[in-house]
Design a protein that fits this description.
With 175 residues, this protein is of the alpha+beta class. The protein contains five helices and eleven strands; from the N terminus they run H-E-E-E-E-E-E-E-H-E-E-E-H-E-H-H. Keywords: Endonuclease, Hydrolase, Nuclease.
């Protein structure tokens, strides 16, 4: 009987310690969001600037600014179109962007809202960006409606960047 009680006590103690560690880790990650509102400038289809702050829309990936896509057998400047779409969305007076983390370029990772609309989700729903896991429903809807990028053929922005890095590495090796 005493042995059974000791096992239960040890299990409860271990569980309490694990819960305490989890709470401590959650508190360390509980940084307050940095909030921005006002005038935003779209650097491309998933990056914004306001003053000196550079921001990256969290959970989405838009075509590179110079990227072209295919639609109806013709090339179109999908990277420029994505930038213009984002700029139109952040032009509203009530746009607010907030986030806590930073990417490897030190850009603040943000979710932007205007008029109650999640602008990150809206870029994906319009087919002007792809989801990085956060906006799968919006991407599925854009695909089904053949909106934006989904109206033709395109390379995922990540693949374009990877190709450019490889090409740059080859150029560096040739020098």
């Amino acid at each position: 009987m005493a042995r059974g009680f000791k096992s239960i006590r040890d299990g409860v103690t271990a569980l309490a310690i694990l819960a305490l560690i989890w709470l401590f880790a959650a508190k360390l990650d509980d940084r307050p969001d940095t909030l921005h509102s006002g005038r935003f400038h779209a650097a491309d289809g998933d990056s914004l600037t306001t003053g000196a702050e550079r921001m990256r829309l969290k959970g989405i990936d838009a075509p590179e600014l110079h990227q072209s896509c295919e639609r109806g057998g013709k090339r179109w400047a999908c990277g420029r179109a994505a930038k213009e779409a984002l700029q139109a969305l952040v032009s509203e007076r009530d746009t607010r962007c907030g986030g806590a983390g930073r990417d490897h370029y030190d850009r603040l990772l943000v979710v932007c809202r205007s008029g109650g609309i999640d602008l990150n989700a809206e870029m994906v729903a319009r087919g002007m960006a792809v989801s990085n896991g956060d906006y799968e429903r919006e991407e599925a809807r854009a695909r089904a409606q053949r909106a934006g990028l989904w109206a033709g053929a395109f390379k995922r922005p990540r693949d374009v960047r990877d190709h450019e890095r490889r090409q740059s590495g080859l150029e560096d090796a040739r020098r």
